[in-house]
Design brief:
This is Beta-galactosidase. By secondary structure, the chain is α+β, with helices and mostly antiparallel strands. The chain is 17% helix and 31% strand.
């Protein structure tokens, strides 16, 4: 039986000692056709283990509707890893952080305004139990104790950064055990007193998350957990990016040196990330600290992370530097990599057809009448956009429109004409107007740019969460259109015409592919919006950068005719798109 166990400061796998050399690959950020490619590169670099989170909201997008097919086929991913001779670390915590929308928690939890998250709150735990009843039985046959590749599983994720409810943590531990999980369980937290005191579980092995100074981190771990194996469960060898900020990088030499420090003392390690992948669709998360100067910061679509294997699967300098360090401690044969994945430039795509959002509402959504402008979750909506409209009587003198707690970015229209944008991170932006005697219709298009995924502010409902005032007066009786934009098939397109600036519109174009290959959608000339290829949501783009292209994996294309749709909020220089054969992760570095 290949069960991972602890014997003093040493991991044992069955009867032999093991130093875990692991790397994170998130199956939910990679198209399934490329899972083997990424796993083979992990093994070729000298790793013996792959680690993955399991995002609850990806597998139960609507309460009671479970998805385990396609990109969500977790069992297949684990089996493929095992077939390649890799061990697997699974982190199925209800919460995963991961710069993923809501830290993996499903948005529908927030339909209950009294919901308490990540604590011993019975309504919350009932939802966790229902999910685990579906998830955990799928993992039991894949445990190493049953001949599978899974050697350990996580109880909760960085819980000490959030809370200190030991009853909750022990409930989650027992939730795994009673469903048949008999492999090694663990927690992972930052190496700080309050984090370890809040996140450790009695009798459960604890690991640490950090990016540098392993001597200090491991010293603290030994104070809390003497004579136990040392492991960095998240070695942050790269970092993620926010819209409007720089693209993060870290030198390969620095990454290799810190790894060498850890391996030289026999510590185990899990690279976070080995290969990052992509936040397809609306699955990017966001950050929001609690200091007065902190603002909401949404994460970009690319999850390249500046790590060993790039977003599109290319080997980086870090790959070779890390492999060289590993070869000092593990005998590695010649480097054998899978065949490179082809990249193609498909040239210019003319976006010849157009559908304006405000005149297409009936194709996309059934309106709901509501006294107050309710948030998305109360209407059963998880992601995308939401449009609130109300009639305002006149005459009225010029006054300011106040949106109380807009989440996250709102375009304001008066009788269909754009008046300005109010952003969560820029609440002082004023929009004022007067109302003529005949009155006006006020419409507010709100974009959910990703729920906060880390820290004390993760309870992050979307849309307009409090109310709308014109001057001092609250406005009531709204028509609401939920716009998840997960199905655009009912849109009626017409030939593209010159649109007014800031008139949200869908643009549609077609192009022919002789041989599908990876390509990159260059968004130069476009302002802000969402791109779709053959109905698949590639994610958001925004001209403030840092990324200047969207990655299109070859398997999303098909031989012959392909459809590209751009949902553009503010307007484009020209209705055309370039599909090129290289990515732009930092617009300043574009060729």
């Amino acid at each position: 039986m290949n069960k991972l166990s602890i014997h003093g400061p040493q991991f044992m796998l069955g009867e032999r000692p093991i130093q875990i050399i692991s790397g994170a690959i998130h199956y939910f950020r990679v198209v399934p056709e490329y899972w083997v490619d990424r796993l083979m590169k992990l093994k070729a670099c000298g790793f013996n283990t792959v680690e993955t989170y399991v995002p609850w909201n990806f597998h139960e997008p609507d309460e009671g509707r479970f998805v385990f097919e396609g990109m969500a086929d977790l069992e297949r991913f684990i089996k493929l890893a095992g077939e390649l001779g890799l061990y697997v670390i699974v982190r199925p915590s209800p919460y995963i952080c991961a710069e993923w929308e809501f830290g993996g928690l499903p948005a529908w939890l927030l339909a209950d305004p009294g919901m308490r998250l990540r604590c011993y709150h019975l309504p919350y735990l009932a939802k966790v139990d229902a999910y685990y009843d579906e998830l955990i039985p799928r993992l039991i046959p894949l445990l190493s104790t049953n001949g599978g590749p899974i050697i350990c599983m996580q109880v909760e994720n960085e819980y000490g950064s959030y809370g200190n409810d030991q009853v909750y943590l022990q409930y989650l531990q027992e939730a795994l055990v009673k469903r048949g999980v008999d492999v090694l369980l663990f927690t992972s937290d930052g190496p700080a007193d309050f984090m370890l005191q809040g996140g450790m579980v009695p009798g459960v092995w604890a690991s640490a998350n950090f990016g540098s100074q392993p001597d200090e981190a491991f010293k603290m771990m030994l104070e809390y957990q003497p004579d136990q194996p040392l492991m960095c469960m998240e070695y942050w060898n790269g970092w993620f990016d926010h819209w409007g900020k720089e693209h993060h990088t870290r030198s390969a030499e620095d990454v290799a040196n810190v790894l060498d420090e850890m391996m030289s003392i026999g510590a185990s390690v899990n690279f976070y990330m080995f290969h990052g992948g992509t936040n397809f669709g609306f699955y990017n998360g966001a950050n929001h600290g609690t200091n007065p100067e902190d603002k909401y910061e949404p994460t970009i679509t690319s999850y390249d992370y500046d790590v060993l294997v790039s977003e599109c699967g290319d080997i980086t300098e870090k790959f070779h530097a890390v492999r060289q360090v590993i070869s000092k401690y593990v005998e590695l044969g010649p480097l054998e990599l899978p065949e490179p994945i082809a990249k193609r430039s498909y040239g210019v795509v003319q976006m010849k057809e157009q559908a304006k959002l405000l005149s297409s509402l009936d194709c996309l959504s059934l309106p709901v009448q509501s006294t107050c402008p309710e948030p998305m979750e109360r209407l059963g909506q998880n992601a995308g956009f939401i449009l609130y409209s109300t009639r305002l009587t006149g005459p009225r003198s010029e006054s300011r429109l106040h949106l109380q707690e807009v989440r996250d970015r709102a375009m304001i229209f008066v009788d269909g004409l754009y008046k300005g944008t109010i952003e969560r991170w820029n609440p002082d932006h004023e929009i004022t107007f007067a109302v003529p005697p005949e009155g006006v219709t006020v419409s507010i298009l709100v974009e959910n740019m990703g729920r906060v995924n880390y820290g004390s502010l993760i309870k992050d409902p979307k849309g307009i969460t409090e109310g709308v005032r014109f001057g001092p007066q609250y406005l009531y009786h709204w028509t609401i259109h939920s716009l998840p934009l997960d199905d655009l098939s009912n849109l009626s397109f017409e030939p593209s015409v010159q649109t007014l600036h800031n008139e949200p519109s869908f643009y549609r174009g077609e192009f022919i592919v002789d041989e599908p290959a990876d390509t990159f959608l260059n968004t130069t000339g476009w302002t802000k919006g969402v791109a779709y290829i053959n109905g698949f949501n590639l994610g958001r783009y925004w001209d403030i950068g840092p990324q200047g292209t969207l990655y299109i994996p070859g398997p999303l294309l098909r031989k012959g005719k392909n459809e590209l749709i751009m949902f553009e909020l503010h307007g484009c220089a020209a209705p055309e798109i370039i599909l090129q054969d290289y990515p732009v992760l930092n617009k300043l570095d574009d060729k």
